[in-house]
Amino acid sequence: MPGQPRDAPGAPSALAWFNTAPAEEAERALLACLRSPRWALRLSGHRPYPDLPSLLAASDEATYDLSPKELTEALAAEPLPALPDGTYSAAHTALTAAHTAYEAKFGHVFVICLDGVPEEETLDRVLENIRSRLANDPEDERVVAAEQLRRLARERLPAVLGARGTALSTADGPAPGETPPR
């Protein structure tokens, strides 16, 4: 597929690297996607994966299975959403107030997957979501936050594995049950 990164000649594919890497190294790479030791152990322990969609499906399943305590730990390790340069200074007051209210109510940082959101819409999307999610009760928000973590892990997996010096193509399309981006 045009525009998709390709593996360097003679280098193992990112998936081949992941499938054969020592468990500790694979787990370290996975923890860069989602700071859940059990999630990383589970994905590492079920290797090899035949293709990227299989790895992403296993990631989804492992994320859905996080206990409330594991979810809390993963949320505690999440950074604030990445926003365009200058956003925090330009909207500092609104974002600070929204993040403070969110953390006070739910006890963890606000997480959101911004995959596919155009940069110029990022600030509006974050503010809109944080304000609407403040209306959730804690249990409903835990479900929403867990889904956002799942999406973040799914987004980060190919990038982290590709950063290992090899390319991981997503040319196979979306994972089962997911609609392709538009």
SSE layout and pairing:
Layout: H1 14-20, H2 23-31, H3 37-45, H4 52-64, H5 68-76, H6 87-90, H7 92-106, H8 122-133, H9 138-162
Structure notes:
With 182 residues, the chain is an all-alpha fold. The chain has two domains: 14-74 and 147-162, Oxo-4-hydroxy-4-carboxy-5-ureidoimidazoline decarboxylase (UraD-like, Orthogonal Bundle); 79-146, no CATH class. The chain contains nine helices and no strands. α5 packs across α9. Residues 1-7 and 165-182 have low confidence and may be disordered.
Nutshell version of this structure?
The chain has 182 residues and is mostly helical.
Largest sheet: none
Number of domains: 2
Overall geometry? globular
Order of helices and strands: HHHHHHHHH
* CATH architectural arrangement of the largest domain: Orthogonal Bundle
The averaged pLDDT comes out at: 82
Secondary-structure-derived class? mainly alpha
Q: Quick one: CATH class of the largest domain?
A: Mainly Alpha
Q: How many H/I helices?
A: 9
Evaluate the radius of gyration: 17 Å
CATH superfamily of the largest domain: Oxo-4-hydroxy-4-carboxy-5-ureidoimidazoline decarboxylase
Annotation keywords:
UraD-like; 182 residues; mainly alpha; disordered C terminus; 9 helices; disordered N terminus; globular; single chain; 2 domains
